[in-house]
Amino acid sequence: MVRSFAVRTATLALVVALTAALPLNASAQDATAGAPTQYHYSTTVTQVYGSRYPIAGHLDLEVFPTGIVRGYYHNAFQKAFIQVVGGRDGNYIWFDIGPTLVDLGFGVSLPPGGRFHVVATMNPDNAFRGQLYEEVANVGTPQIGAPLSPGAYGRPPGSLPAPNSQYAALVTANSAGPDEADQLIFAATPTEKSTEDYQGAY
Q1: pLDDT tens, 109-128?
Q2: Structural domain of residue 87, as residue ranges?
Q3: Global pTM value
Q4: Which pLDDT score, from 0 to 100, does residue 176 have?
Q5: Core-most of 20, 84, 182, 190, by most CB within 10 Å?
Q6: What is the number of structural domains in the chain?
């Protein structure tokens, strides 16, 4: 009985100590995360060999000391703010624009759940330039309600579907490599805060 009481007391003391330490640890993480730095950019999207009419836009970003990037993008024609999420590591920045069904004027129509992905290198003045390409969610995944060919699921990993299956058609259609017309350049130049900026909370 004494042994049981001692074990219960020790267990209770351990639980109380861990419970008290958790909020302190969480607040310490918040303090080290720091406040984000806000950047505002004037952007252009062009084809890799130049465009007669570049697509102008505006990008508002918050970059956290931990490397997390978030913000909003809109083009000059439609003022629909599209969410941006990504990261930064040194001079490299990457982010997704979307998902969105809004035609941003890039010459690429996105399916539901699709987004644009930007990978770029930043200059010392925080301007950046890189590649923009279409990123489709659920590539090769049959749509809800679509008829499935026999054996579409339950294959061992790495095994190929039958050549005439619906799955093979989806993968083939979505894995074609980009040609010159599909390659887009995303360039961003820092600007001062303006009325073009996203006015809500990030």
Answers
A1: 788 778 999 999 999 999 99
A2: 36-139+175-190
A3: 0.63
A4: 44
A5: 84
A6: 1
Cβ distance 57 to 43 under 8 Å?
yes
* Residue 201, domain member (yes or no): no
Q: What is the model's pLDDT at position 113?
A: 79
Radius of gyration of the chain (CA): 24
pLDDT at 103: 83
Distances (CA, A) of 87 to 95, 138, 192: 6, 22, 22
Q: Which CATH number belongs to the domain containing residue 70 in this structure?
A: 2.40.128.120
In a domain, 105, yes or no: yes
H or E element that contains 173: helix 166-174
Alpha-carbon distance 43 to 166, whole Å? 39
Q: Burial, 131: exposed, middle or buried (Cβ in 10 Å; 0-12, 13-18, 19+)?
A: middle
In-domain check, residue 151: no
Residue with tokens 């074990």: 7
Chain position carrying tokens 């941003």: 104
State residue 1's pLDDT score: 55
Sign of CA dihedral 110, 111, 116, 117: negative
